[in-house]
Amino acid sequence: MDLQSTVTAFPRATPIDGLDRAWTWRLNPVLNFAGALAVLRLGDSLIDLKRRQFHGPQVALLDSFEAEWTGDPQARKADFASDYPGAPMLSRGLVDRVGQERLERAGRLVPVRTPGPESDDYALYVVEPLVDCVDSRRSAQPKKATGEMRKTVFRPEAVPAELPAFRVPQFPVAVCWTGWMRDLLGEILGGDLEARLLWSPEPSAAPHPDPWGL
């Protein structure tokens, strides 16, 4: 099974609360000054995750992932704890507040093991839907190695606005978050969450100039 054959087809999405639900975002913890938050980084298991993201269900999903805290050891641990766009890691407290069933509409929560006698209670959110919704004629050319696009334009009728998150075939190792989930996470996390706009159906909304950079 190749990548294209794993693309999930969704019917035309009709946002319940308006077009803002179809806005798409890249989310990560706020890292605008040293020591702001401690974040989790995956080790070798990131390679296994990327292989699954590139090749689909034919690559088995690990039962758990190993990650280490980076940054100032005294810094507060982020609840939205990964700055890698394809491997969001959420604390159990954040999962409970967002709602596990709501998150599992678009993927699985896989345990994360951290160093020490008592591992921190975090889960890696493995977003499964691969949705063919990019307007390739108006988007930037994907990079050969990863598929990253500096500018992404979506087809509004194809964006799965009912889902919390999704991925696209052109750049399968990154997670795109829909507007309503971005708003919900923003309400919970406040200033701990950075949201970079990828695309909006509103012509006046300006996407982030470098949405996938750090």
Count up the helices: 4
The sequence of SSEs as H and E is EEHEEHHEEEEHE
Query: Outline, from the CA principal axes?
Result: globular
Q: Taking all residues together, what is the mean pLDDT?
A: 87
Over the alpha carbons, how many angstroms does the gyration radius reach?
17 Å
Largest sheet: 5 strands, mixed
Strand order of the largest sheet: 2-3-5-6-4
Counting helices, strands and paired strands, the structural category is alpha+beta
Q: How large a portion of the residues is in β-strands, by DSSP E?
A: 15-25%
Could you tell me the number of beta strands? 9
State the end-to-end CA separation: 33 Å
Estimated helix fraction: 10-25%
Flag low-confidence runs: 1-19
Kindly report the oligomeric state of this protein.
single chain
Structure description:
It is globular, with a radius of gyration of 17 Å. It has a 5-stranded mixed sheet with strand order 2-3-5-6-4. The protein starts with 23 loop residues before the first strand and ends in a 15-residue tail after the last strand. Mean pLDDT is 87; it is low at 1-19. The chain contains 4 helices and 9 strands. It has helices at 45-55, 92-98, 100-103, 179-189; strands at residues 24-29, 39-42, 65-70, 89-91, 107-113, 122-127, 165-168, 171-178, 193-199. It is α+β, with helices and mostly antiparallel strands. It is 15% helix and 24% strand.
